[in-house]
Amino acid sequence: MIIVVLLLLGLCLGSFTNALVWRLHEQTGSKSKKASKDLSITQGRSMCPDCHHQLGFWDLIPVFSWLGLKGKCRYCHKPISPQYPLVELLTAALFIFSYAVWPYGWADIGIFQFAVWLGVSTGFMALTIYDARWQILPSRVLYPVGVLAALQVVVLTFAQRDWQVAFGALLGVICLGGLFYALFQVSGGRWIGGGDVRLGVVIGLLVGGPAEAILVLFIASLLGTMFALPSLITKKPELTRRVAFGPFLVVATVIVYLFGASLINWYKTHFLLL
Q1: Closest C-alpha to 130, from 246, 21, 251
Q2: Verdict on whether the full-model pTM lies above 0.85
Q3: Closest among 183, 181, 171 to 209, alpha carbons compared
Q4: Between the CA of residue 237 and those of 96, 193, 231, what are the distances in Å?
Q5: Burial 27-56 (b: 16+ CB within 10 A, else e)
Q6: How many CA atoms, within 13 angstroms, populate the side-chain half-sphere of residue 101?
Q7: pLDDT tens sequence across 27-82
C-alpha cells in the first residue's frame, strides 16, 4: 500500500514539477498582467504550452494522458515533449527507491525526515530540469528547498538534543557553499553561477557534514567528467561548453543523502585502516 501511495504521489508531484518549471520560465518573459495571472503557480489553470488552451481533467492524468493522446495536444495537435511523462515517472521512481533504501529508520523523526526528503526531492527535480534546459537555478525553487533543509537541521538538533547536528550542517555549508562562493568571486561568475553558490549552501545544510559535502562535490565532478568525456575524446568541446553543473550536484546529493554514511565508512575501513 505504501508503494502505491508513493507511486501516485510521485506521479502527481512530477506533474506539478513540469507545470512549475514551465510557468516559472514563462513568467520571466511575461509583461502582461493578465498573462502573469494566468501563469500564477497557485491560481493559474493548467494549459497547453503551445496553444494555451485550458486543459481538462482527462488531459491531466500523469503518464496516461500523454500515452492516450499519443504525445500530442488534444486541441492544437502539436507534439507534447516526452519530458512530461519522463519527469513524472522519475519522480515516482525516486520516491519509491528512497523508501526502499531509507537509511534513517522509521521512528517519528525518521518519518519526519522522509517527508522532508520527498519535498526536497520534488524541488531538486524542478531545479534539474530548469538548469539542464536554461542553465539557471531559480531562487523561487531554491529558497523553499533551503527552508526544508534548514527545518530538518533544527528539528534533528532539538529532537536528538545534539548540537553537533547543527555544527555539522554549518561545516557542510562552509565547505560546499563557501568553496562555490570563492570560485564565483575569483572568476567573476565565469566558472560558477550564483545559483550554484546558493545550491551549495542548501546541499551543505541537507547532507549535514563536511565529509558528506566533500563527497557530494567529488561525485558531482566525477559525473560531470564522465558526461564530458565523449566530447573530449572526439575533440568537440562545443558539445559540452555550456553544460549545467546543477543536475550533477543534485544526483550526487541524492546518492550521498541515501548512501553517504555507508560510503564514508567503506572509505575509512579500506583506505584509512580504521
Answers
A1: 21
A2: yes
A3: 171
A4: 37, 20, 5
A5: beeeeeeeeeebbeeeebeebbbeeeeebe
A6: 15
A7: 876 554 445 566 666 566 777 877 877 877 787 889 988 888 888 888 888 888 89
